[in-house]
Each structure stands twice: as structure tokens, then as C-alpha cells.
Design a protein that fits this description.
With 354 residues, this protein is α+β, with helices and mostly antiparallel strands. It has helices at residues 11-26, 32-42, 45-52, 106-120, 135-143, 216-241, 245-253, 263-275, 277-285, 297-312, 318-332, 337-353, and strands at 2-5, 57-63, 69-76, 90-97, 125-131, 147-156, 159-169, 177-180, 211-214. The chain is elongated and about 70 Å long.
């Protein structure tokens, strides 16, 4: 597989794969009318031609050794960016891979090309938009150090959808970087997303130019996730034993794994939740008729954590909160409990964004 930059001569192929991959990705979740409108207006030959000749946009094909197109990438800088940003920043606007080639390293290879271009031009950061319901894509970018910083509306025909804007600061530092070498850098379940209101593509990385990926943010994300997991376990124990909160916390913090968490987050969340559980229950009652007292202790603890983050932590985007809560429910909760938790926290998250 190789990556090559496109010219106007590639217009027909670009339009074909653009329409095909967009339809494969989103047709199941949108009306035929909205899909047809988007394909006609946003992926027309004239529109793509204008973008191809724009010096601040770049298109790439991922091709196999026979020259067959597997997927494509679009990046923007300067005024071509879809949202006003630092003119030197690089936006990943689109990464799409034909469904027949998912899992073959195509999406990850295109992502690495964008990362390489950003580093070559000295971009201060990479950024993109991710559909708020696309948890796989959100997880992929979180794993690679991206953090949510805003949201915007992505209109598909008549449907206004919400994209989470995420960014990755590109600050080279020998102390905060780890080498990335081809496919070994990505686990088999890594997802290379399609930006635009994105969809995932499970991929290994493919050879592009070697680079260094700052791991400081990734480490912080992992520590925060572990803190949530330990917080859930501690709150569960507190409910079951009825012991004083500080005793339960002391016992849990003796666990060696507690040294690998975001301690500031854990301390603030645990203190708040154990001293405001009635207020948290009242808050949940505003969006759901189920009594908190009748919930399973695991579900109750996950919802407490979710409400705490949504109402008390403006530094954490609601979509991240919901994503993490759903993953906790899938791991520790009863079957299908994640659906209830997702619906409840989604309502609270929308109230915060309103």
C-alpha cells in the first residue's frame, strides 16, 4: 500500500470514492433524502474540483500495489479549515475507507500521513470533528492524545447533527515522546476514523514517514479512565458495606493500582459524590422517572459519576463522560444497563449544552 497526493486529473476517482464511502458510512443512520442532498451539494464534481485546486487543501489516495484506490484523506490549513482556527493548524476533514478494505491498515495509514504533514509544516496542532455518537472514533482519538475542546453543528440535508471538535497539540519533546514505527504502533482494535461526522475503520498502521507521538496526553487520559474505574469500585463498596466514606477510600487507595490513576480527579469526585448523593439523585430525577434508590448499586454509582462530571466539571466534555460511563456499564453493569445509562446522561448532557 502507498499514499499519493491527488491532482485535478483524479477528480472522477475522487468523486466516486467520496460518494461510495459516505453512503456506506452513513446511509443506515440517515434518510435517503438527506443523503441524496448531501451527495449532490457537498460531493459534486464542481465542489470537489474547487477543493482540489485550493492550495490550502490536500487530498490523498491510499492505493494497493495494483493502483486500486482503498480510501482517501482530505486536510485543510489556513482559510480552508471548516472552522476558524490558527491559520497554521492542520485540520483532518475527511478520512474514509471503502468497507471492503476495513481492517487492512488503510485508515491508520491516512491518519499518519496527516500527522506527518502537520509535523513537516510545523503546525501547532491537529484538529478535527467527530460525530458525538461515534464512540469508536472518539476512543481512537482519545487514545492518540486528542482532547475535546468545542462542538459544532454538522448539517446533513435537513438534519442538524453535533460534532465534537478535538485537537492534538504538536509540541516536540524528547522527554514526552515515544517512537512510532509502522504497524507495531497500533493495536489490532485501533480505529482510524472518517472525520466529517465520522465513522470508524479498524486498522493497523502502514508505513509512512517515521514520527514521534507525544504520549503525555495519552498517559493523562489513561490515568483518568483508571480513576473512573477505581471510583466506581469504591462507590460500590461504600454502598454495600455502609462504612464511613473515608474508611472505604483508605482501603481502596492501598491497592497498588491506585498509584496509576488521576489522583486529583478521584479525590474531588469521591468527596463530592459521597457528600452530595441526594442532590445527585434529585438531578437524575429531572430526566428519568426511575427512582435512584431502586437502581443496582453499579448503575447508581456510574450515574453519580456521570452527573458529577456533567454538572461540576466543565473541563470534561459531556460526550467523553457518556462514552466512559457506557464503557463502565458494559464492563461492570448488568446486561443492557448501558442503554439506560446512555439515555439518561445524554439528556443531562444536552441540558448542559443548551
Amino acid at each position: 500500500m502507498h499514499i499519493r497526493q491527488l491532482t485535478l486529473a483524479d477528480l472522477d476517482q475522487l468523486q466516486s470514492i467520496s460518494r461510495t464511502t459516505f453512503h456506506e458510512t452513513f446511509a443506515a443512520d440517515n434518510s435517503e433524502a438527506d443523503m441524496a442532498h448531501y451527495l449532490e451539494h457537498n460531493l459534486s464534481a464542481s465542489r470537489l474540483a474547487q477543493e482540489l485546486v485550493n492550495p490550502e487543501s490536500r487530498f490523498y489516495f491510499a492505493e494497493d500495489d495494483d493502483g486500486n484506490v482503498l480510501g482517501y484523506l482530505k486536510t485543510n490549513t489556513g482559510a480552508a479549515q471548516s472552522e476558524p482556527q490558527d491559520p497554521q493548524a492542520l485540520e483532518i476533514e475527511r478520512i474514509y475507507v471503502l468497507s471492503a478494505h476495513h481492517g487492512q491498515g488503510v485508515g491508520a495509514a491516512l491518519y499518519r500521513q496527516a500527522r506527518h504533514d502537520a509535523e513537516q509544516q510545523g503546525a501547532p496542532y491537529l484538529w478535527l470533528g467527530v460525530w458525538e455518537h461515534n464512540r469508536s472514533a472518539l476512543q481512537f482519538y482519545q487514545k492518540h492524545g486528542f482532547t475535546a475542546f468545542a462542538s459544532h453543528t454538522f448539517t446533513l440535508g435537513s438534519d442538524a447533527q453535533t460534532d465534537i471538535l478535538m485537537k492534538l497539540d504538536l509540541v516536540p519533546s524528547a522527554d514526552d515522546a515515544v517512537p512510532v514505527t509502522n504497524s507495531a504502533a497500533y493495536a489490532a482494535d485501533d480505529t482510524a476514523p472518517a472525520a466529517d461526522s465520522v465513522a470508524p475503520d479498524a486498522d493497523h498502521a502502514a508505513p509512512i514517514a517515521p514520527s514521534k507521538v507525544p504520549n503525555l496526553r495519552r498517559r493523562a487520559i489513561e490515568q483518568r479512565s483508571r480513576a473512573r474505574r477505581l471510583l466506581l469500585q469504591t462507590l460500590y463498596q461504600w454502598q454495600i458495606t455502609g462504612d464511613p466514606p473515608h474508611h472505604v477510600r483508605m482501603n481502596r487507595m492501598e491497592d497498588p493500582k491506585a498509584r496509576e490513576i488521576d489522583e486529583d480527579y478521584f479525590a474531588a469526585a469521591y468527596t463530592y459524590i459521597t457528600t452530595h448523593r441526594e442532590e445527585l439523585g434529585n438531578r437524575l430525577a429531572t430526566v428519568n422517572n426511575r427512582k435512584v434508590s431502586l437502581l443496582d448499586p453499579v448503575e447508581r454509582a456510574i450515574l453519580w459519576i456521570g452527573v458529577y462530571e456533567i454538572d461540576e466539571r466543565p473541563d470534561i466534555h459531556p460526550t467523553v463522560t457518556i462514552n466512559e460511563a457506557v464503557e463502565l456499564a458494559k464492563q461492570f453493569g448488568a446486561a443492557d444497563s448501558y442503554k439506560y445509562i446512555n439515555a439518561t446522561l445524554d439528556k443531562l448532557g444536552k441540558q448542559r449544552r443548551a
